[in-house]
Amino acid sequence: MSRNTSVKRRLSKILDEIERDSITTDTVKEAWLDQYGCRMLPHANRLAVAIKVHERWIPAGGFRSHRTVYIRRVKA
User: Which domains does the chain have, with CATH numbers?
Assistant: First the structure.
């Protein structure tokens, strides 16, 4: 399995397991560090793209602070 595939699979698993109403890339980064440590930690840009294409999360603002907040699609 290639690195890209394994990172995508791990990110998808983390995004499915997070039980919060709103998240940022820092939230996903903390979850990654809790589960996998610092090995293969994706860049924040890659985390943001993974959250945007995931069916459970949508952007909700926070563009001025450069930390986009994502909310669950069910809440929107």
Answer: 3-72 (1.10.10)
57 touches 51 (CB < 8 A) = yes
> How far apart are the C-alpha atoms of 53 and 2, rounded to whole Å?
20
Task: Determine the angle formed by the axes of helices 44-53 and 25-36, rounding to 10 degrees.
Answer: 100
Query: Which pLDDT tens digit goes with each residue over 3-25?
Result: 888 999 999 999 999 999 999 99
If you count DSSP H runs as helices and E runs as strands, how many of each does the chain have, helices first? Answer: 3, 3
Q: What angle do CA 58, 11, 14 make, to 5 degrees?
A: 80
Q: What is the pLDDT of residues 31-45, one digit of tens each?
A: 999 999 988 899 989
Dist CA 67 CA 38 (whole Å): 21
